[in-house]
Specification:
This protein has 355 residues and is an alpha/beta fold. The protein is built from 6 helices and 14 strands. 23% of the residues lie in helices and 23% in strands.
Length: 355
């Protein structure tokens, strides 16, 4: 199935039914009076997150969604039937934006989460509501209000714990193949990965994390160059970034400049991403026969970058050092969970004392 992570649709809620202006006409009841019922409310449009979906491909051709209108009111104080709501299934991780105002309406991050994106119109009032002591035969009834019409932009952002950064051909796809069951395409030319891939890394019982193989980035990606926003959008949800760099790029470029280029693109897209935990993973150590030369090349990259965070030397193709990286990542998330648990316990303790 083709991976589609962006789509635009139009949703139209149902209009409310019109109120009825009628009068009771029965034998032997000369003063029947008004008995027009109200119109029914129009149906609303809802989005619901479904973990069974992993792409927005269904919206490539079906882009119009319309809820039914409410039924008109009738005589004998009969109210019109309301239009049924319609539900549109979207993948978990979908961000919904109003195209006209560019405002984010909602973010569906949990399975089963619902979001109303278009409100149905209200039913009109029948003339039964307008009778009074001075107006015993009102002929007034109100029409139903129209339902909301919205153009929506759906944007799927992958829900991953770890995101892989790196230039094309840095070895990100090979790395995710080595540590998970994911099978992204691997080749010796740039932009092999055209769409994000997710892999689950299992360390032990109840110990696992999700890693995202993101399409490669080039300079100017924040402005849309190359795969541009397709790359940066999916990084925004990750808790930890692994910056994969080729220790000796085949095009002769400087790996330090590659790392710095991506840092600039992260800052241009979202300054918060630069502050997110990021580890350096120096790949393709199997390209060296001499151990001292390998160590000198790796140290040169770390020193010129002034890198103070964790760094690793691996061969994704040979699965050398990849297990150690995954163990360290799992320890990172275990420590985060423990810290959150302590924080929650402290908050609960304070709350109990104040109560």
């Amino acid at each position: 199935m083709k991976f589609v992570d962006e789509a635009q649709i139009r949703v139209t809620a149902g209009s409310g039914g019109n109120g009825c202006a009628s009068f009771r006409r029965e034998k032997f009841i000369p003063f029947g009076g008004p008995d027009g019922g109200d119109g029914g409310d129009g149906g609303s449009v809802w989005l619901v997150a479904d973990e069974g979906l992993n792409t927005l491909v269904d919206f490539r051709h079906m882009r119009q969604f319309k809820a039914p209108r409410g039924q008109n009111g009738m005589g004998s104080q009969m109210y019109g039937k309301g239009g049924e709501d319609i539900t549109i299934r979207v993948p978990v991780g979908t961000v919904v934006t109003n195209v006209d105002t560019d405002d984010v309406i909602g973010d569906l991050t949990a399975n089963g989460q619902r979001l109303k994106v278009a409100e149905g119109g209200r039913g009109g009032l029948g003339n039964i509501h307008f009778k009074s002591s001075v107006n015993r035969a009102p002929r007034k009834a109100t029409p139903g209000t129209p339902g909301e019409v919205r153009d929506l932009k759906l944007e799927l952002r992958l829900l991953a714990d770890v995101g892989l950064l790196g230039f094309p051909n840095a070895g990100k796809s090979t790395f995710i193949r080595a540590v998970s069951a994911a099978t992204p395409r691997v080749a010796d030319y740039p932009f092999t990965t055209l769409h994000p891939n997710l892999g689950v890394v299992r360390i032990g019982t109840d110990q696992s994390f999700v890693i995202a193989d993101i399409p490669g980035i080039i300079e100017g990606a924040a402005e849309g160059a190359g795969l541009g926003i397709q790359f940066l959008r999916h990084v925004s949800r990750t808790s930890l970034l692994l910056h994969v760099v080729d220790i000796r790029p085949i095009d002769g470029s400087d790996p330090v400049e590659q790392v710095q280029t991506i840092e600039r693109e992260l800052a241009n897209f979202d300054s918060e991403l630069v502050e997110r935990p990021r580890w350096l993973v120096i790949n393709k150590m199997d390209g060296f026969d001499d151990e001292e030369e390998l160590e000198a090349a790796a140290n040169d990259i770390v020193n010129r970058l002034g890198w103070t965070g964790p760094s690793f030397l691996i061969s994704a193709a040979g699965q050398q050092g990849t297990r150690e990286v995954c163990l360290q990542v799992q320890q990172f998330f275990d420590a985060e969970r423990a810290a959150r648990k302590l924080e929650q316990e402290a908050t609960d303790d304070v709350r109990m004392r104040t109560e």
